[in-house]
TrEMBL record:
Residues 1-21 form the signal peptide. The keyword Signal applies. This is Glycoside hydrolase family 16 protein. Keywords: Hydrolase, Signal. GO terms for molecular function: hydrolase activity, hydrolyzing O-glycosyl compounds. It comes from Zasmidium cellare ATCC 36951.
């Protein structure tokens, strides 16, 4: 692309007429996602590159079974243990389920709760990620996530698409990067909470936005999400931005159900991550991860603030231990702590 004259950089490629051969040529040169992002007529459509379905998740994802880097009360199990115990399974209604052990107690001080953390074999650089889910983990002590992670954290980035804790009714979408990346938080329906993505400041809270459980973004997380049979999260990652849309079940655009997402019809995104940030150097070679954690660095530290969760009555027991005391001795309470997925489609 270096040989292109400078003036070409300013041509609104997306406005070339449909069928113009240049659109295709430019697309293959790596510019197309900017166009696709605009959704303007003539933009080359995304094409399916990975179609994760209940029957092939286990072939296309690996199980991470080492210690939890976020200090949760979990033991992530390998595929053999997960499938033998039904922690990863195809449900009777044909969905893909990921769940923790909900039958045994795993008290504080001992091993954590057997759970799962799966990682895609394939890695991505740009793309459109369409996650259709009918149920997500919720309840006191839970810390589930669906996210993208690059190598050598945080130098190749982290994009958290679904994440929250305990009885939250709102999703937190955030990014974590190396230094020099801030986002503006404009043109989005979610609420910007923090604009600096650098993992080395603000206690690694990253740059994040909340999806308030309001009329614009109903039932986007937790119990409300599950009562409404979930919905679809769409993430579009280009050289210029990472945008996320939320569509609750009943309001999923027909272009998505038809398998040809038409971004021009999606409206204002829930979260629009762009600003003073060189997206292409901050995010590279990212894997998809889905995991179910308990307590740990986020959920444990804020457990005492969730007064609708049972607390250890001893006031000298800190937030983290109060959380672990609860989940470790109440396996029944984890019955809603599962993911149930229809599909994940990655387009490029
Ligand atoms: C899976 O984990 C179990 C329990 O730790 C272990 O006994 C088994 O060898 C592991 N299997 C594989 C294939 O790593
Ligand atoms: C951030 O910007 C400063 C100033 O330009 C530069 O010295 C530093 O190397 C940058 N750091 C990263 C991780 O990009
Ligand atoms: C991305 O992965 C490819 C293939 O493993 C590797 O050649 C390349 O150096 C990686 N790029 C970055 C920036 O990590």
């Amino acid at each position: 692309m270096a040989s292109l004259p400078v003036w070409l950089l300013s041509i609104p490629i997306c406005c070339l007429p449909p069928g113009n051969a240049n659109v295709y040529a430019v697309r293959n040169g790596g510019w197309a996602l900017e166009c696709a992002g605009s959704g303007a007529p003539g933009a080359a459509p995304y094409e399916l590159v990975d179609d994760y379905q209940p029957g092939n998740f286990l072939d296309k994802f690996n199980f991470y079974s080492s210690y939890d880097p976020t200090y949760g009360h979990v033991q992530y199990v390998n595929e053999t243990v997960a499938t033998a115990n039904g922690y990863a399974a195809i449900s009777s209604r044909g969905t893909f389920v990921l769940k923790p052990d909900t039958t045994n107690a795993w008290p504080n001080g001992g091993l954590g709760i057997p759970s799962v953390r799966i990682i895609s074999d394939n890695t991505y650089y740009h793309g459109l990620f369409v996650m259709d889910m009918v149920h997500m983990p919720t309840g006191c002590g839970t810390w589930p996530a669906y996210w993208l992670l690059g190598p050598e954290w945080p130098s190749k980035g982290e994009i958290d698409i679904i994440e929250g804790v305990h009885t939250d009714m709102y999703n937190t979408i955030s990014m974590h990067t190396s230094d020099n990346c801030t986002i503006a938080g404009s043109t989005q329906s979610g609420t910007l909470k923090q604009n600096n993505c650098y993992a080395g400041v603000n206690g690694n809270s990253g740059c994040g936005s909340l999806l308030d459980n309001n009329a614009a973004l109903p039932n986007n997380y937790g119990a409300g999400f599950n009562q409404n049979q979930g919905g679809v999260y769409v993430t579009e990652w280009t050289s210029e931005f990472v945008k996320h849309w939320w569509f609750p079940r009943g309001s999923i655009p027909s272009s998505i159900t038809n398998g040809a997402p038409d971004i021009s019809q999606f409206g204002i995104p829930a979260v629009n991550q762009q600003g003073a940030c060189d997206i292409d150097t901050k995010f590279r070679n990212m894997s998809v991860i889905i995991n179910i954690d308990f307590c740990g660095a986020w959920a444990g530290n804020v457990y005492r603030q969730y007064t609708n969760c049972p607390q250890n009555p001893n006031p000298s027991v800190d937030s983290l231990n109060s959380c672990v005391d609860y989940v470790g001795t109440n396996p029944d309470s984890l019955k809603q702590a599962y993911f149930e997925i229809n599909s994940l489609r990655v387009l490029s």
